[in-house]
Hints:
Blueprint: H1 2-9, H2 13-22, H3 26-36, H4 39-49, H5 53-63, H6 66-75, H7 79-89, H8 92-100, H9 104-113, H10 117-126, H11 130-139, H12 143-150, H13 155-158, H14 162-179, H15 181-191, H16 194-210, H17 214-219
Helix pairs in contact: 1-2, 2-3, 3-4, 4-5, 5-6, 6-7, 8-9, 9-10, 10-11, 11-12, 12-14, 14-15, 15-16
Amino acid sequence: xKAAQVWERNHNPTEAANLLYRNGLFKELxxxxxxxxxxxxxxxxxxxxxxxxxxxxxxxEQARFDHGVEKILREQGRIGDLVAYWLETGxxxxxxxxxxxxYPAQAADFYxxxxxxxxxxxxxxxxxxxxxxxxxxxxKELYEDALKTANTLEASEQAKVDGLINRCYRELAPRCxxxxxxxxxxxxxxxxxxxxIKRVATCLMEQAAARGNFTExxxx
Length: 220
């Protein structure tokens, strides 16, 4: 121990640590690591060699060693402290994932910060806020997802989102005209846009006639 102190006083904590380790002096080794700022090594020594959890946790927090901090706090059932640690370190993903089951509305806020709007919308639906979910998806121009979410609503809720759904149709219909004209036609039909219906249906009619499919052309 005295030899290790000499190494440490002469600014060579590594030699001090090696000497203490070789001689199984783990309590002094952990303290030496901690004084030298080797917090991860100190924490591992406190936890694995000495079973001294509180100083291990202190060192892991200093080292920002998330895995070690989370392991100890979970084993001790200190979930409130775990959430506080994630807040302190800005671990938004861990917070969102943790809150998703029991507090989905709060999880949605964290997913928004992560720009994961699909997850945020899913959490809002789970929290009983489908209208907010659709508003978020439309705001972020995720129109397809907004329509899928709207299709899951109860009939009583549907009236509240008609304007949002129509906005999705208006945005998607022109985009579908070339790649999915049938779908574009359906969207224009739902919007009661007769001019666009006639334009798209006429184009489809002419394409069907050109293929010799006159029954299909007549239907258009």
